[in-house]
Amino acid sequence: MPESFDVIVIGAGPGGYVCAIRAAQLGMKVACVEKRATLGGTCLNVGCIPSKALLQSSENFEETRHKFAEHGIIVDGVKLDLARMQARKGEVVGANVKGVEFLFKKNKVTWLKGAGKITAPGKVEVEGQTYETRNIVIATGSDSTPLRGVEVDEKQVVTSTGALELEKVPGHMVVIGGGVIGLELGSVWRRLGSEVTVIEYLDRIVPGMDNEIARQFERVLTKQGIKFKLKSKVTAAKKDASGVTLTVEPAAGGAAEEVKADVVLLSIGRRPYTEGLGLAEAGVELDERGRVKTDRHYATNVPGIYAIGDVIAGAMLAHKAEDEGVALAEILAGQAGHVNYGVIPAIVYTWPEVASVGETEEELKARGQAYKVGKFPFTANGRARAMGDTDGFVKILADKETDRVLGCHILGPDAGGLIAEVAIAMEFGASAEDVARTCHAHPTLSESVKEAALAVDGRALHI
What we know:
The protein is an alpha/beta fold. The chain has three domains: 4-144 and 271-339, FAD/NAD(P)-binding domain, CATH 3.50.50; 157-268, FAD/NAD(P)-binding domain (3-Layer(bba) Sandwich); 343-456, FAD/NAD-linked reductase, C-terminal dimerisation domain (Enolase-like, domain 1, 2-Layer Sandwich). The protein has helices at 14-25, 41-46, 48-66, 82-106, 160-163, 180-191, 211-224, 279-282, 318-332, 361-366, 382-387, 415-427, 432-436, 447-456, and strands spanning 4-10, 30-34, 110-113, 116-120, 123-126, 129-138, 142-144, 157-158, 172-176, 195-199, 227-229, 232-240, 243-250, 257-261, 263-266, 270-272, 305-307, 346-348, 353-358, 371-377, 393-399, 405-412. The longest helix is centred in the N-terminal third of the chain and has 25 residues, at 82-106. The termini are far apart.
Protein backbone atom coordinates (compact mmCIF):
# COMPACT_ATOMS: atom_id res chain seq x y z
CA MET A 1 0.00 0.00 0.00
CA PRO A 2 1.59 3.32 -1.08
CA GLU A 3 2.17 5.91 1.63
CA SER A 4 -0.41 8.68 1.37
CA PHE A 5 -0.39 12.39 2.18
CA ASP A 6 -2.79 15.30 2.24
CA VAL A 7 -0.36 17.40 0.19
CA ILE A 8 2.71 16.58 -1.87
CA VAL A 9 4.73 19.61 -2.97
CA ILE A 10 7.13 19.07 -5.88
CA GLY A 11 10.09 21.40 -5.43
CA ALA A 12 11.71 22.72 -2.22
CA GLY A 13 12.52 26.26 -3.28
CA PRO A 14 11.08 29.28 -1.43
CA GLY A 15 7.58 28.68 -2.77
CA GLY A 16 7.59 24.93 -2.25
CA TYR A 17 9.19 24.66 1.17
CA VAL A 18 7.10 27.53 2.57
CA CYS A 19 3.92 25.96 1.17
CA ALA A 20 4.87 22.63 2.76
CA ILE A 21 5.61 24.18 6.15
CA ARG A 22 2.42 26.26 6.21
CA ALA A 23 0.29 23.27 5.17
CA ALA A 24 1.85 21.24 7.98
CA GLN A 25 1.18 24.05 10.46
CA LEU A 26 -2.47 23.86 9.41
CA GLY A 27 -2.65 20.20 10.36
CA MET A 28 -2.09 18.47 7.05
CA LYS A 29 0.19 15.51 6.43
CA VAL A 30 2.75 16.89 4.00
CA ALA A 31 5.62 15.65 1.85
CA CYS A 32 7.97 17.73 -0.27
CA VAL A 33 9.86 16.27 -3.24
CA GLU A 34 13.34 17.62 -3.93
CA LYS A 35 16.01 16.15 -6.20
CA ARG A 36 18.89 18.33 -5.00
CA ALA A 37 21.06 17.03 -2.19
CA THR A 38 19.97 20.08 -0.18
CA LEU A 39 16.69 21.94 0.30
CA GLY A 40 16.04 25.56 -0.68
CA GLY A 41 15.94 25.32 -4.47
CA THR A 42 17.74 27.65 -6.84
CA CYS A 43 17.33 30.62 -4.49
CA LEU A 44 19.19 29.25 -1.48
CA ASN A 45 21.65 27.03 -3.35
CA VAL A 46 22.71 28.87 -6.53
CA GLY A 47 20.70 32.10 -6.60
CA CYS A 48 19.56 34.71 -4.08
CA ILE A 49 21.62 33.65 -1.08
CA PRO A 50 25.05 32.89 -2.60
CA SER A 51 24.84 35.96 -4.84
CA LYS A 52 24.08 38.19 -1.85
CA ALA A 53 27.01 36.67 0.02
CA LEU A 54 29.36 37.55 -2.85
CA LEU A 55 27.76 40.97 -3.26
CA GLN A 56 28.43 41.74 0.40
CA SER A 57 31.99 40.42 0.28
CA SER A 58 32.79 42.34 -2.90
CA GLU A 59 31.28 45.52 -1.43
CA ASN A 60 33.52 45.12 1.63
CA PHE A 61 36.55 44.69 -0.65
CA GLU A 62 35.61 47.75 -2.69
CA GLU A 63 35.09 49.91 0.38
CA THR A 64 38.39 48.84 1.90
CA ARG A 65 40.27 49.73 -1.27
CA HIS A 66 38.49 52.93 -2.25
CA LYS A 67 36.21 54.34 0.45
CA PHE A 68 37.79 53.81 3.87
CA ALA A 69 40.41 56.49 3.25
CA GLU A 70 37.62 59.09 3.03
CA HIS A 71 36.72 58.16 6.62
CA GLY A 72 40.31 58.45 7.82
CA ILE A 73 40.91 54.69 7.79
CA ILE A 74 44.14 53.84 6.01
CA VAL A 75 44.55 50.20 5.02
CA ASP A 76 47.74 49.18 3.22
CA GLY A 77 48.36 46.09 1.15
CA VAL A 78 44.73 45.02 0.61
CA LYS A 79 44.62 41.64 -1.11
CA LEU A 80 41.84 39.50 -2.50
CA ASP A 81 41.57 35.92 -1.24
CA LEU A 82 38.94 34.69 -3.70
CA ALA A 83 39.11 31.11 -2.43
CA ARG A 84 38.21 32.28 1.09
CA MET A 85 35.47 34.53 -0.26
CA GLN A 86 33.96 31.60 -2.14
CA ALA A 87 34.31 29.39 0.93
CA ARG A 88 32.44 31.93 3.04
CA LYS A 89 29.69 32.00 0.43
CA GLY A 90 29.43 28.23 0.79
CA GLU A 91 29.17 28.54 4.57
CA VAL A 92 26.32 31.04 4.23
CA VAL A 93 24.49 28.74 1.81
CA GLY A 94 25.07 25.74 4.09
CA ALA A 95 23.59 27.49 7.10
CA ASN A 96 20.49 28.48 5.16
CA VAL A 97 19.76 25.09 3.58
CA LYS A 98 20.32 23.31 6.91
CA GLY A 99 17.88 25.76 8.41
CA VAL A 100 15.17 24.63 5.99
CA GLU A 101 15.92 20.99 6.77
CA PHE A 102 15.50 21.81 10.48
CA LEU A 103 12.16 23.47 9.77
CA PHE A 104 10.96 20.38 7.88
CA LYS A 105 11.78 18.22 10.90
CA LYS A 106 10.21 20.70 13.31
CA ASN A 107 6.96 20.78 11.32
CA LYS A 108 6.99 17.05 10.46
CA VAL A 109 7.26 17.59 6.70
CA THR A 110 8.53 14.46 4.94
CA TRP A 111 11.34 15.06 2.47
CA LEU A 112 11.00 12.71 -0.51
CA LYS A 113 14.48 12.71 -2.04
CA GLY A 114 14.65 12.48 -5.83
CA ALA A 115 12.89 13.78 -8.92
CA GLY A 116 9.10 13.79 -8.80
CA LYS A 117 6.74 12.85 -11.61
CA ILE A 118 2.95 13.08 -11.66
CA THR A 119 1.74 9.70 -12.94
CA ALA A 120 -1.96 10.47 -12.44
CA PRO A 121 -4.10 12.89 -10.43
CA GLY A 122 -3.34 12.12 -6.80
CA LYS A 123 -0.20 10.08 -7.56
CA VAL A 124 3.45 11.17 -7.54
CA GLU A 125 6.36 8.89 -8.35
CA VAL A 126 9.77 9.53 -6.75
CA GLU A 127 12.72 7.24 -7.50
CA GLY A 128 10.42 4.38 -8.54
CA GLN A 129 8.20 4.70 -5.48
CA THR A 130 4.60 5.89 -5.91
CA TYR A 131 2.93 8.06 -3.27
CA GLU A 132 -0.73 9.00 -3.05
CA THR A 133 -2.06 12.41 -2.12
CA ARG A 134 -5.24 14.46 -2.14
CA ASN A 135 -3.39 17.54 -3.45
CA ILE A 136 -0.31 18.01 -5.64
CA VAL A 137 1.50 21.35 -5.70
CA ILE A 138 3.90 22.06 -8.58
CA ALA A 139 6.64 24.40 -7.28
CA THR A 140 9.53 23.50 -9.58
CA GLY A 141 10.71 27.05 -10.23
CA SER A 142 12.66 28.21 -13.25
CA ASP A 143 15.87 27.75 -15.17
CA SER A 144 18.19 30.08 -17.11
CA THR A 145 16.90 30.97 -20.58
CA PRO A 146 19.24 29.80 -23.37
CA LEU A 147 20.33 31.92 -26.35
CA ARG A 148 20.78 30.48 -29.83
CA GLY A 149 24.42 30.57 -30.88
CA VAL A 150 25.73 30.86 -27.31
CA GLU A 151 26.56 27.47 -25.81
CA VAL A 152 26.84 27.38 -22.03
CA ASP A 153 29.64 25.27 -20.48
CA GLU A 154 29.61 26.96 -17.02
CA LYS A 155 33.34 27.64 -17.43
CA GLN A 156 33.86 30.19 -20.20
CA VAL A 157 30.20 30.82 -21.00
CA VAL A 158 28.29 30.72 -17.73
CA THR A 159 24.82 31.23 -16.36
CA SER A 160 24.33 32.72 -12.91
CA THR A 161 25.23 29.28 -11.51
CA GLY A 162 28.69 29.28 -13.07
CA ALA A 163 29.23 32.98 -12.38
CA LEU A 164 28.98 32.22 -8.66
CA GLU A 165 31.72 29.57 -8.84
CA LEU A 166 34.54 31.24 -10.79
CA GLU A 167 37.93 30.37 -9.35
CA LYS A 168 39.72 33.47 -10.64
CA VAL A 169 38.73 37.00 -11.52
CA PRO A 170 38.15 37.33 -15.28
CA GLY A 171 40.14 40.00 -17.07
CA HIS A 172 37.05 40.91 -19.10
CA MET A 173 33.54 39.69 -18.36
CA VAL A 174 30.78 40.29 -20.87
CA VAL A 175 27.25 40.12 -19.50
CA ILE A 176 24.54 39.33 -22.03
CA GLY A 177 21.40 40.95 -20.65
CA GLY A 178 20.91 44.14 -18.66
CA GLY A 179 18.47 42.70 -16.12
CA VAL A 180 18.71 42.14 -12.38
CA ILE A 181 20.85 38.99 -12.28
CA GLY A 182 23.36 40.20 -14.86
CA LEU A 183 23.85 43.57 -13.19
CA GLU A 184 24.23 42.07 -9.71
CA LEU A 185 26.80 39.48 -10.73
CA GLY A 186 28.51 41.87 -13.13
CA SER A 187 28.95 44.31 -10.26
CA VAL A 188 30.45 41.57 -8.07
CA TRP A 189 33.21 40.82 -10.58
CA ARG A 190 33.73 44.47 -11.47
CA ARG A 191 34.48 45.22 -7.81
CA LEU A 192 36.88 42.30 -7.64
CA GLY A 193 38.86 43.58 -10.62
CA SER A 194 37.15 42.58 -13.87
CA GLU A 195 36.45 44.87 -16.76
CA VAL A 196 32.70 44.40 -17.27
CA THR A 197 30.67 45.09 -20.40
CA VAL A 198 26.90 44.65 -20.48
CA ILE A 199 25.23 43.95 -23.83
CA GLU A 200 21.48 44.62 -23.84
CA TYR A 201 19.00 44.23 -26.71
CA LEU A 202 16.76 47.09 -25.52
CA ASP A 203 17.67 50.77 -25.29
CA ARG A 204 17.71 50.63 -21.48
CA ILE A 205 18.64 48.40 -18.55
CA VAL A 206 16.32 46.79 -15.96
CA PRO A 207 13.30 46.59 -18.27
CA GLY A 208 10.00 46.90 -16.44
CA MET A 209 11.33 49.27 -13.81
CA ASP A 210 10.57 52.99 -13.77
CA ASN A 211 12.37 54.58 -16.72
CA GLU A 212 13.71 57.61 -14.84
CA ILE A 213 15.20 55.34 -12.18
CA ALA A 214 16.68 53.05 -14.86
CA ARG A 215 18.39 55.94 -16.66
CA GLN A 216 19.93 57.26 -13.44
CA PHE A 217 20.92 53.72 -12.44
CA GLU A 218 22.77 53.28 -15.72
CA ARG A 219 24.68 56.53 -15.11
CA VAL A 220 25.66 55.40 -11.60
CA LEU A 221 26.89 51.99 -12.84
CA THR A 222 28.79 53.67 -15.67
CA LYS A 223 30.50 55.91 -13.11
CA GLN A 224 31.46 52.75 -11.24
CA GLY A 225 33.20 51.43 -14.36
CA ILE A 226 30.64 49.13 -16.02
CA LYS A 227 30.37 49.66 -19.78
CA PHE A 228 27.10 49.31 -21.68
CA LYS A 229 26.32 48.36 -25.26
CA LEU A 230 22.58 48.97 -25.58
CA LYS A 231 20.35 48.21 -28.59
CA SER A 232 22.70 45.33 -29.39
CA LYS A 233 22.32 41.56 -29.75
CA VAL A 234 24.75 38.65 -29.51
CA THR A 235 24.35 36.21 -32.41
CA ALA A 236 27.30 33.85 -31.87
CA ALA A 237 29.98 32.86 -29.39
CA LYS A 238 33.23 31.14 -30.37
CA LYS A 239 35.37 29.63 -27.60
CA ASP A 240 39.07 28.83 -27.65
CA ALA A 241 41.91 28.60 -25.14
CA SER A 242 42.28 32.38 -25.01
CA GLY A 243 38.64 33.14 -24.23
CA VAL A 244 35.37 33.79 -26.02
CA THR A 245 34.76 35.87 -29.12
CA LEU A 246 31.21 37.19 -29.41
CA THR A 247 29.54 38.37 -32.60
CA VAL A 248 27.50 41.47 -31.72
CA GLU A 249 25.03 43.14 -34.06
CA PRO A 250 22.87 46.27 -33.71
CA ALA A 251 19.35 45.28 -32.64
CA ALA A 252 17.90 47.24 -35.56
CA GLY A 253 20.26 45.59 -38.05
CA GLY A 254 23.62 46.64 -39.40
CA ALA A 255 27.27 45.66 -39.42
CA ALA A 256 28.41 43.14 -36.84
CA GLU A 257 31.46 43.53 -34.61
CA GLU A 258 33.49 41.15 -32.49
CA VAL A 259 33.83 41.49 -28.72
CA LYS A 260 36.40 39.39 -26.87
CA ALA A 261 35.92 38.20 -23.31
CA ASP A 262 37.53 35.87 -20.80
CA VAL A 263 34.14 34.89 -19.39
CA VAL A 264 30.65 35.48 -20.77
CA LEU A 265 27.67 35.57 -18.41
CA LEU A 266 24.44 34.67 -20.20
CA SER A 267 21.64 36.34 -18.28
CA ILE A 268 18.67 37.07 -20.54
CA GLY A 269 15.99 35.85 -18.17
CA ARG A 270 14.55 32.64 -16.80
CA ARG A 271 11.95 30.16 -18.03
CA PRO A 272 9.60 27.80 -16.15
CA TYR A 273 11.11 24.42 -15.27
CA THR A 274 8.65 21.60 -16.04
CA GLU A 275 10.97 18.93 -17.44
CA GLY A 276 10.13 15.36 -16.47
CA LEU A 277 7.07 16.25 -14.43
CA GLY A 278 4.66 14.32 -16.62
CA LEU A 279 2.40 17.32 -17.08
CA ALA A 280 1.37 16.45 -20.64
CA GLU A 281 0.48 12.89 -19.64
CA ALA A 282 -1.51 14.19 -16.66
CA GLY A 283 -3.35 16.65 -18.90
CA VAL A 284 -2.07 19.80 -17.17
CA GLU A 285 -2.36 22.80 -19.49
CA LEU A 286 0.53 25.19 -20.15
CA ASP A 287 0.31 28.69 -21.63
CA GLU A 288 2.13 30.03 -24.70
CA ARG A 289 5.26 30.69 -22.63
CA GLY A 290 5.44 27.23 -21.12
CA ARG A 291 4.03 28.28 -17.75
CA VAL A 292 1.49 26.16 -15.89
CA LYS A 293 -1.96 27.70 -16.31
CA THR A 294 -3.79 28.32 -13.04
CA ASP A 295 -6.88 30.13 -11.81
CA ARG A 296 -6.83 32.73 -9.03
CA HIS A 297 -6.72 29.94 -6.46
CA TYR A 298 -3.60 28.37 -8.07
CA ALA A 299 -5.62 25.41 -9.40
CA THR A 300 -4.73 23.90 -12.77
CA ASN A 301 -7.31 22.46 -15.14
CA VAL A 302 -6.79 19.05 -13.49
CA PRO A 303 -8.64 18.72 -10.16
CA GLY A 304 -6.27 18.32 -7.21
CA ILE A 305 -3.21 19.70 -9.03
CA TYR A 306 -2.01 23.21 -8.21
CA ALA A 307 1.02 25.36 -9.08
CA ILE A 308 2.86 28.35 -7.58
CA GLY A 309 6.02 30.44 -8.02
CA ASP A 310 8.20 30.83 -11.09
CA VAL A 311 6.42 28.01 -12.91
CA ILE A 312 3.22 30.10 -13.22
CA ALA A 313 2.53 33.60 -14.57
CA GLY A 314 3.86 36.65 -12.78
CA ALA A 315 7.13 38.04 -11.50
CA MET A 316 9.84 35.45 -10.89
CA LEU A 317 10.62 36.50 -7.33
CA ALA A 318 11.27 34.32 -4.28
CA HIS A 319 9.01 36.39 -2.04
CA LYS A 320 6.17 36.23 -4.56
CA ALA A 321 6.52 32.42 -4.55
CA GLU A 322 6.57 32.34 -0.74
CA ASP A 323 3.38 34.37 -0.48
CA GLU A 324 1.70 32.12 -3.03
CA GLY A 325 2.83 29.07 -1.08
CA VAL A 326 1.24 30.40 2.11
CA ALA A 327 -1.93 31.46 0.29
CA LEU A 328 -2.35 28.06 -1.38
CA ALA A 329 -1.75 26.14 1.86
CA GLU A 330 -4.43 28.24 3.53
CA ILE A 331 -6.83 27.71 0.61
CA LEU A 332 -6.31 23.94 0.86
CA ALA A 333 -7.14 24.21 4.56
CA GLY A 334 -10.41 25.96 3.75
CA GLN A 335 -9.18 29.44 4.60
CA ALA A 336 -9.10 32.58 2.44
CA GLY A 337 -5.50 32.68 1.19
CA HIS A 338 -4.72 35.76 -0.90
CA VAL A 339 -1.78 37.57 -2.54
CA ASN A 340 -1.93 41.27 -3.40
CA TYR A 341 0.02 41.31 -6.66
CA GLY A 342 -0.05 45.11 -6.78
CA VAL A 343 2.22 45.34 -3.74
CA ILE A 344 5.13 42.99 -4.46
CA PRO A 345 8.52 44.74 -4.18
CA ALA A 346 11.31 44.15 -6.69
CA ILE A 347 14.94 44.83 -5.76
CA VAL A 348 18.31 44.97 -7.50
CA TYR A 349 21.02 44.27 -4.92
CA THR A 350 23.82 46.29 -6.46
CA TRP A 351 25.16 49.26 -4.50
CA PRO A 352 23.39 51.56 -4.56
CA GLU A 353 20.35 49.30 -4.56
CA VAL A 354 17.26 49.76 -6.71
CA ALA A 355 13.82 48.98 -5.29
CA SER A 356 10.35 49.29 -6.73
CA VAL A 357 6.78 48.60 -5.62
CA GLY A 358 3.50 49.33 -7.37
CA GLU A 359 3.18 51.02 -10.73
CA THR A 360 5.70 53.01 -12.75
CA GLU A 361 5.07 56.36 -14.40
CA GLU A 362 5.02 54.62 -17.77
CA GLU A 363 2.30 52.23 -16.59
CA LEU A 364 0.20 55.05 -15.13
CA LYS A 365 0.43 57.04 -18.34
CA ALA A 366 -0.46 53.99 -20.42
CA ARG A 367 -3.74 53.49 -18.56
CA GLY A 368 -4.58 57.19 -18.41
CA GLN A 369 -4.22 57.52 -14.64
CA ALA A 370 -3.91 61.08 -13.34
CA TYR A 371 -1.09 61.17 -10.78
CA LYS A 372 1.29 63.34 -8.78
CA VAL A 373 5.03 62.83 -8.31
CA GLY A 374 7.19 63.51 -5.28
CA LYS A 375 10.98 63.11 -5.41
CA PHE A 376 13.76 63.57 -2.91
CA PRO A 377 17.51 63.11 -3.56
CA PHE A 378 19.85 61.33 -1.15
CA THR A 379 22.29 64.23 -1.56
CA ALA A 380 19.93 66.14 0.76
CA ASN A 381 19.69 63.39 3.39
CA GLY A 382 21.94 63.83 6.44
CA ARG A 383 22.47 60.12 7.08
CA ALA A 384 23.36 59.43 3.43
CA ARG A 385 25.93 62.23 3.56
CA ALA A 386 27.42 60.78 6.74
CA MET A 387 27.64 57.39 5.06
CA GLY A 388 29.13 58.83 1.87
CA ASP A 389 26.32 57.22 -0.15
CA THR A 390 24.43 60.05 -1.83
CA ASP A 391 23.72 58.61 -5.28
CA GLY A 392 20.05 58.28 -6.19
CA PHE A 393 16.65 59.45 -5.02
CA VAL A 394 13.21 58.37 -3.77
CA LYS A 395 10.23 58.79 -6.08
CA ILE A 396 6.63 58.41 -4.91
CA LEU A 397 3.63 58.33 -7.25
CA ALA A 398 0.17 59.13 -5.88
CA ASP A 399 -3.35 59.41 -7.27
CA LYS A 400 -3.99 63.03 -8.28
CA GLU A 401 -7.46 63.11 -6.71
CA THR A 402 -7.29 60.79 -3.70
CA ASP A 403 -3.54 61.04 -2.90
CA ARG A 404 -3.41 57.22 -2.52
CA VAL A 405 0.11 55.88 -3.06
CA LEU A 406 0.27 54.08 -6.41
CA GLY A 407 3.97 53.27 -6.54
CA CYS A 408 7.41 54.00 -5.17
CA HIS A 409 10.79 53.72 -6.87
CA ILE A 410 14.09 54.11 -5.06
CA LEU A 411 17.69 54.24 -6.23
CA GLY A 412 19.99 54.58 -3.27
CA PRO A 413 21.58 53.06 -0.17
CA ASP A 414 19.47 50.28 1.40
CA ALA A 415 16.66 50.86 -1.10
CA GLY A 416 15.54 47.27 -0.52
CA GLY A 417 14.94 47.98 3.16
CA LEU A 418 13.35 51.38 2.59
CA ILE A 419 10.78 50.06 0.12
CA ALA A 420 9.11 47.95 2.83
CA GLU A 421 7.64 51.04 4.47
CA VAL A 422 5.87 52.02 1.27
CA ALA A 423 4.73 48.45 0.61
CA ILE A 424 3.01 48.40 4.01
CA ALA A 425 1.50 51.84 3.35
CA MET A 426 0.12 50.63 0.01
CA GLU A 427 -1.20 47.40 1.54
CA PHE A 428 -3.33 49.52 3.88
CA GLY A 429 -4.38 51.98 1.16
CA ALA A 430 -2.40 54.88 2.64
CA SER A 431 -2.06 58.29 1.04
CA ALA A 432 1.18 60.16 0.48
CA GLU A 433 -0.05 62.48 3.23
CA ASP A 434 -0.24 59.51 5.63
CA VAL A 435 3.41 58.68 4.96
CA ALA A 436 4.43 62.34 5.17
CA ARG A 437 2.74 62.88 8.55
CA THR A 438 4.28 59.78 10.12
CA CYS A 439 7.22 60.73 12.33
CA HIS A 440 10.49 59.33 10.97
CA ALA A 441 13.58 59.10 13.16
CA HIS A 442 16.45 61.49 12.49
CA PRO A 443 19.00 61.02 11.09
CA THR A 444 17.92 58.03 8.98
CA LEU A 445 17.74 57.14 5.32
CA SER A 446 13.99 56.64 5.78
CA GLU A 447 13.57 60.40 6.10
CA SER A 448 14.05 60.50 2.33
CA VAL A 449 10.84 58.49 1.95
CA LYS A 450 9.01 61.00 4.16
CA GLU A 451 10.45 63.91 2.20
CA ALA A 452 9.41 62.34 -1.12
CA ALA A 453 5.90 61.93 0.29
CA LEU A 454 5.93 65.59 1.32
CA ALA A 455 7.16 66.49 -2.18
CA VAL A 456 4.04 64.90 -3.69
CA ASP A 457 2.22 67.95 -2.31
CA GLY A 458 5.10 70.31 -3.15
CA ARG A 459 6.21 70.81 0.46
CA ALA A 460 9.45 68.91 0.95
CA LEU A 461 11.39 70.56 3.78
CA HIS A 462 15.02 69.92 2.89
CA ILE A 463 15.19 70.79 -0.81
